[in-house]
TrEMBL record:
This is Unconventional myosin-IXa. Coiled coil: none annotated. It comes from Schizaphis graminum (Green bug aphid). InterPro entries: Myo9, Rho_GTPase_activation_prot, RhoGAP_dom. It is found in: Cytoplasm.
Amino acid sequence: MYSRAILTYPLFLDCKLTCHKKCYTRANQECLKDMNSSTANMQSKGVCVVKGKVFGRPLGELDLSMGKVPAVVECLITIIEMYGMYTEGIYRKPGLTTRVNELKELIDNNDVSKIEFEKYQVHVLASVLKSFLRDMPEPLLTFDCYDDFIRAASLSEDRVSTLFNILKKLPKVNYDLMERLVFHLARVALHENVNRMNASSLAIVFAPCVLRTNKLVPAQESLRDIEQQTLCISSIISHQMDKIKSTLADIDTLDTAHHTATHRLSSLRISKVYGPTEGPSKMDEEEKMLVGQIQEIKKEKDFLTSNLPSLRRTNSDDDLLSTDDGSLDDVDTNTLGSSRKAKLKNTTKKSKRSNNNTLDSDEDPIMV
């Protein structure tokens, strides 16, 4: 059963057993006893246990050959980002059950790299991704951190800073997957005017999948927790959206500067007339300056792109998130951001100044 059943009846989050409120004490004893018995014995007791090659497995046991996150997650997210960012109701509308089960069986019994995910509708892929997160034996944000997240959601001030502090307590494999997932959801939310899925809508869908408790919770208390769970995920996604918008704006500025510099360099080279002893290998000062600018722009763009999917806090509360491991979290991101923006402005001004002497030409710019 899905955890929303808790609205009506108590739900056991370890075995997914739902029962009447007057029977939960006896059912819970059976559940706990069955959790330590064999799978066959569990099924004879009526407890549903799902554990395949991929679904229902701990994160540490999954294939990470495609990067820091499980291969199946990377494949699903990649295809969804390629074909489904503008699909209305993505993650809200379920996929066809038969197709979802078919794809889950394929993933459990085959090499993920050989599966043709493109053949499936976006809603089917989205449903499989949600199912993967929901079937994890321990949720992505872990049982140990559940109470901390719920308390952080109730804060009126420094909520986001506290949430990011708690995220740092996650095991590395959990943190890496959460980082990739949040970056993906933020990208989806940026197209909310088309897909109708903003940060709050996505949080309503994903909060029960990644944040849940292993304790027996009364129905009334669980209702309060659902609101806090949603607020946690919504706050994290919204913060990531702000970071993406700022970074993408910087990348657009670099793209403009790159186009200006390459167009000027192309025009400069086309306008030159070489003598019999001269050749294009000999560059004057302006050419050298333009080549240097283009190389710097490329380095800066690569740096910004490589840091897009990050869960690091970026505002004035960064000092609350510092660590002793020498990571980029220790860097004052305000200072770093100001320095980058100053470089962007300087590079753009230089490119525009160089372009004032551009000769009229319809030739394509030479990419250096």
